Hints:
It is a single chain. By secondary structure, the chain is mostly helical. It has 19 helices and nine strands. Helices cover 45% and strands 6% of the residues. The chain has a three-stranded mixed sheet, covered by helices on one side. Helix 8 (179-187) crosses helix 9 and helix 13 packs antiparallel against helix 17.
Amino acid sequence: MIVFHLFFIKLLIGTVLHLTAPRTLFPEACSTLLYSSDGQLLGARIAPDGQWRFPPADSLPGKFVTCLLTYEDKRFFRHPGVDPVAIVRAMQINLSRGKVVSGGSTITMQLARIARGNRDRTLYEKMVETGYALLLETVCGKHEILSLYASHAPFGGNVIGIETAAWRYFGRSAADLSWAESATLAVLPNSPALIHPGRNRARLKAKRDKLLTALKERGILDETEYGLSLLEPLPEAPVPLPDEAPHLLERLAADAPGTRITTSVNRMLQRQTQELVNRYARDYASNHIHNLAALIADAETGEVLAYAGNVTFKADARKGNQVDIITSPRSTGSILKPFLYAAMLHDGQLLPGTLVSDVPPEPERLLAAKLQQDVLRGGPGTPGDRTFAQRPTGTDAFGLQHGAVHVAAEKGGHDHAALFRRALRGFADPGRRRRDVMGPHRHVCFTGAYARTLPDLQRAV
Length: 461
């Protein structure tokens, strides 16, 4: 009879916990992260609720796990979510001091408390947390519980999770932290509102050094590691997160918010490309040119290796630096003529001094509307005159609409320029991909009758 009653009580408690437990422990959205091809963090965007909360990682760094278990829950892998030894010890400490000093909570109980929104610490809440902890231990493995705790524990301010804290306080991944740095982060969740690198530094250092001493006593640190760890300074104020491809991050985050996005971008090439774009933008600012972009792709695979959507230095917001102009349509004439010019120079079909006709082709060979809009400069007339330079040089021809058209029409063969023209099949008119670009409307792309983006050009060429 007694056994039956105990079983019934357990069944009742289990049913109540199962019905009241949240189906999703942490429904809050995460930050969006952008990574390079070699796994380096390129940038991050804050979560919608204003918290820096990185998505949970697949694994935790060994140093942090060792520090966390040593400081918070030495018997984590041996108890079922509740540690009777820790509870008895906490009661003894609280009775001896006459106030609540220790709660005896395990990591699993702390995880339950975080999942419930860090409610006021009462006896009732402690009982609920205990029940949730037992339930969590039945549905989650120990390593999963550790990962959930490390990913959602508070680390001061709006910093949530170990990986976020590592980047915000030390400027690198948690896997690259030293013993002293890992120990610093291991003690932060214990009192994140009272102790964090921005204040109470003496108390924080005392707790960190106490943990380092415990690691030394357990034989995890030798004398040299222990001495050097004690000398390491605490972090100062939170450091800015990497922001090396802001326009690419904004573009991809719109489709996959709150996730880790791995790209084909080469981190060093991205950094060099963005620096080059910023430098030229500063040089051209006196000419009222404030926006530049660069897209670098692998010629064989088409993978994007660098994506500089605009300049990134601080400037007047009215200059539009936040706009990703890689995706902004541009005149095909301005984009294509330099490539055609370079291809024909390479093959010896055109020299800078070669005379090129600047007479409009037959109307049926060009869009009439485009011809009416053309205002040609550089001819024998005055600036803005609608006259034609009858024989501009090759250099001048590529500053003119019709000169470039004649060059594209008259030069052919199986050379680089011809290959270039064939590669443009479908660039000017994606709906006519099978039509030869040397067909009836083959030249409108060089006069700028179409608007295309840099990715369009990258895919075509």
